[in-house]
Amino acid sequence: MWGRAVLPQAFGAGASGGEPIGEIWFQDGRGAESELLVKYLLTRETLSIQVHPDGDAARAAGHRRGKDEAWLVLEAEPGARIGLGLKRKVTRTALRAAVADGTLETLVDWRYVRSGDFFYSPAGTIHALGPGLAVVEIQQNVDLTYRLYDYGRGRELQVEAAVAAARLEPFSFAARREPEPGREILCEGGAFVVERWTRAAGGRLAGEIERPVWLIPVRGGGLIDGEPLQPPSVWLVEDQSRVRIDEGSQVVFAYPGATVIDALFVDTRSGRQIERLDERRHYRPPTRLEPSFR
Ligand SMILES: [Zn+2]
What's the 214 CA to ligand 1 centre distance in angstroms? Predict the structure, then answer.
């Protein structure tokens, strides 16, 4: 098992201070400037039923961006579920009424999940993670959550804002494709792209300052800029760093923007880009993001 028992040790003794860890997030000092935020979530109880606003609504509320989220399930206890969208189309009035009379939970579409499942939850999707899950969460980097229901835990709800932001319909799955064996595009067309690689690969990664790539080794690993690449770690790549993925590994790449970077490893496809790199004076090494615990 990768999860709750093993994870604290992977981060070093005392990382959790003896408390069960629920959330580990990976950041550098850039704060809100970073487009994406990667977390590991380990759920012991159902998280609140919530909604995040889209870019327009978030900016109107004074934030830099809206919030799409995605989850890759690493471990799921039998019966573990994620709530995504509603079982049927409803009006805003009906949604508000379901919150008021305590039936929201039965209106949410709960689905059983397994290790390896992936979900892209666009802003406005009503969602909640159930207990017994270890997931990698990739999200647009903004702290902006509207809670509809919190299972009586007493935290503040933001029902009106949530109802206004919510998509009032069933969830629709993102289309997946596998442009080459062992390279899956898990989502595209939204605020960020997520890819899962299960094949050996090596070369210079197509990271840029304008479009950095988050690299998340989930199983196995390899090398990044000569350093060991292994879970649990998250790397931010903003230049054409050398990356090697070993046979039998599983590595996730996430980057902002709607479109897939076709040549994610530039020098397996194009000699010209290598020349351009060698002409550059400054090389920006990859950043190993520091974990924080909660
Ligand atoms: Zn959320």
Answer: 19
Q: Which two tokens stand for residue 114?
A: 């397994």
CA-to-CA distance for 161 and 146, rounded, in angstroms? 6
- Contact predicate 76/107, CB 8 Å: no
Residues noted as catalytic: 147
H helices present in 88-225, as ranges:
92-100, 104-107, 159-165
| Tally of residues, the chain | 294
State how far the Cα of 222 lies from the Cα of 230, in Å rounded to an integer.
7
Domains and CATH numbers, the chain: 7-165 (2.60.120.10), 177-289 (2.60.120.10)
Q: Is-contact 48 151, C-beta < 8 A?
A: yes
The pLDDT score that the predictor gives to residue 28 is 84
Place of tokens 């950043």: 287
Nearest to 195, CA basis, from 247, 263, 287, 141: 263
Please give the distance, rounded to the nearest whole angstrom, from the Cα atom of residue 146 to the centre of ligand 1. Answer: 9
Query: Of 36, 109, 43, which Cα lies nearest the Cα of 66?
Result: 36
pLDDT category, 7, cuts 50, 70, 90? low
- pLDDT tens, residue by residue, 240-285: 999 999 999 999 999 999 999 999 998 754 445 555 555 566 899 9
8 Å CB contact between 74 and 135: yes
**Distance from the alpha carbon of residue 288 to the mean position of ligand 1, in angstroms:** 25
Instruction: Give 166's contacts (C-beta < 8 A, 6+ positions apart).
Output: 51, 92, 95, 124, 126, 148
pLDDT tens figures, 41-94: 999 889 999 999 999 999 999 999 999 999 999 999 999 999 999 999 999 999
